[in-house]
Design a protein that fits this description.
Elements: H1 3-9, E1 25-29, H2 30-47, E2 50-51, H3 61-69, E3 75-77, H4 80-88, E4 94-96, H5 105-113, E5 118-122, H6 125-138, E6 142-147, H7 160-172, E7 176-183, H8 194-217, E8 225-227, H9 233-239, E9 244-245, H10 255-258, E10 274-285, E11 288-291, E12 306-309, E13 316-319, E14 325-328, E15 341-345, H11 349-353, E16 358-363, E17 366-372
Parallel strand pairs: 1-16, 2-9, 3-4, 4-5, 5-6, 6-7, 7-8, 8-9
Antiparallel strand pairs: 1-10, 10-11, 10-15, 11-14, 12-15, 13-14, 16-17
Helix pairs in contact: 5-6, 6-7, 7-8
Length: 379
């Protein structure tokens, strides 16, 4: 237990305790989180889709269990470490969505031997061979999805022909099971305008469907076509290619996703639930206050944090170094005092979560639980 967790745990259940935490603190609004989980589950159920949400967003078995209770068929993991942690907490239906280095194949098989429910993706014959050798030596069967490159250019097979070859290689191996294909369009998730995102999806979805059709023609129909994300899932559903969705950030709705139009009408089915709380530590400057949350408290690969509550209207946030931030007042006359607490919407939820050891889970103004970010880090 960290020092801050030990101190803050004493506040659990006390009215107003949300505003007495040691800061910087990662805040998770449980009412908003539960509403987001329910809204996505209802959407999937209405459309007849499976949900395998992405655990890289939250890295939390506590959240994964809530997603499973709401009907998720499993959980995606971006790394071996995430899968190891989730398997240790008995989370089922794990899919490692990143092709791993072949040397990690025995570690994946070890998870399965120890009772883990784990599948993987592969985009190269050498990786398939490594998985096959490790699985056969251990006497287990491993589910493998063929990873398709459908425009992202990061991982995946570059052509339908290679996808057919890999699917055939998997199907022919006695210790491997051809479980389906993955087609993730990460490059389209943050296109804000709904119409532009649809235009881009038109081309890439045609490419995905063509690869699926080629596999079907080769007598290797994928049992599952998995992909999609928070930014594209509603549009993806209209094309009918995906049957399983890997949505992740809908849980938290960070600054990047709050500007993405989910529909032409720009309805807001998901609300911000993840915040960083900071305290004012210096008020010696007329135009701004200094806080205790800087570069080490926020993901800095995107926009600045948006102030959600606690600061004067019109104020904005900026970084002042590793440990400090600044709240610029703008044109208003209201000023903050020493010790005031301010909460900001996380700029990019996945790396922001990875900066903290714990979620401080709140309902209203009360701290109700502290959940560990159990799968933070890498392996």
């Amino acid at each position: 237990m960290s020092n801050s967790e030990a101190a803050n745990s004493k506040l659990i259940g006390r009215p107003g305790s949300r505003w007495n935490l040691l800061t910087p603190a990662l805040i998770l609004d449980l009412d908003a989180l539960e509403a987001n989980i329910a809204a996505m589950a209802d959407w999937a159920k209405a459309g007849g889709f499976a949900l395998r949400p992405h655990g890289k967003s939250h890295k939390s078995p506590d959240i994964a269990r809530r997603q499973a209770t709401a009907g998720a068929v499993g959980l995606c993991c971006a790394s071996l470490r995430e899968a190891q942690v989730m398997a240790a907490h008995n989370i089922k239906g794990l899919l490692i969505t990143t092709p791993l280095a072949p040397g990690k194949a025995p570690l994946v098989i070890e998870l399965i031997k120890n009772g883990g429910d784990v599948a993987v993706v592969a985009d190269h014959a050498e990786l398939v061979a490594a998985y096959g050798a490790a699985a056969q030596a251990a006497g287990v069967t491993l589910d493998i999805f063929v990873d398709l490159d459908v425009g992202l250019g990061r991982t995946g097979t570059p052509s339908a022909q290679i996808a057919i070859e890999l699917a055939g290689q998997i199907s022919a191996h006695p210790a491997l099971n051809y479980a389906g294909v993955q087609g993730y369009m990460g490059h389209l998730q943050h296109i804000d305008r709904h119409a532009e995102r649809r235009d881009r999806l038109d081309g890439d979805t045609v490419d995905l469907q063509a690869k699926v059709d080629a596999l079907i023609k080769a007598n290797l129909p994928p049992p599952v076509v998995s992909g999609g994300g928070t930014g594209t899932h509603r549009l993806d559903a209209e094309y009918g290619t995906l049957g399983e969705f890997q949505v992740g950030s809908y849980l938290f709705m960070d600054v990047q996703y709050l500007t993405v139009q989910q529909s032409e009408a720009d309805d807001k089915p998901y609300a911000a639930s993840l915040f960083v709380q900071t305290s004012v530590v210096n008020i010696n400057h007329p135009g701004y206050a200094v806080t205790d949350a800087g570069l080490k408290s926020f993901a800095t690969d995107g926009p600045f944090p948006i102030i959600a509550r606690g600061a004067p209207a019109g104020a904005s946030y900026r970084y002042m170094g590793d440990e400090h931030g600044a709240i610029d007042y703008g044109s208003g006359s209201e000023r903050l005092t020493l010790g005031d607490r301010v909460e900001c919407v996380a700029p990019h939820c996945d790396p922001n979560v990875n900066l903290f050891n714990d979620y401080h889970v709140v309902r209203g103004d009360t701290l109700v639980e502290i959940w560990p970010v159990a799968a933070r880090g890498n392996s």
